[in-house]
Amino acid sequence: MLEEESRNRLLLLFDLYGKLLKEKQRHYFEMYYHEDLSLGEIAELQNVSRQAVFDQVKRVEKQMEQYEDSLGLLSRHEKRRQLMAELQKELGHHHSKAHALLRELYELEMDID
Hints:
0% strand, mainly alpha, Arc Repressor Mutant, subunit A, 2 domains
């Protein structure tokens, strides 16, 4: 389960910070995480060693974690979602205008994902 959580975190980080990466870094990450290619398959496609692919993927992961440490976009995103869930729970089935606004917030939040 931890591996899946880690993978999901990396995918979210990529959604937030992927555009800050170099094109080659984005390409390797996408092949490995989105296209689910093995390191060996990527190495063959890119005509590089498996170790070079591994190093590149790990470098991207580290770089995105550094971006998160500096900018905190993911942690703020998660906090907003938590607060919206708490607000929805507190509202219950009342206050239809408040529910409509909360729905709009959720939709905006989904655009970030």
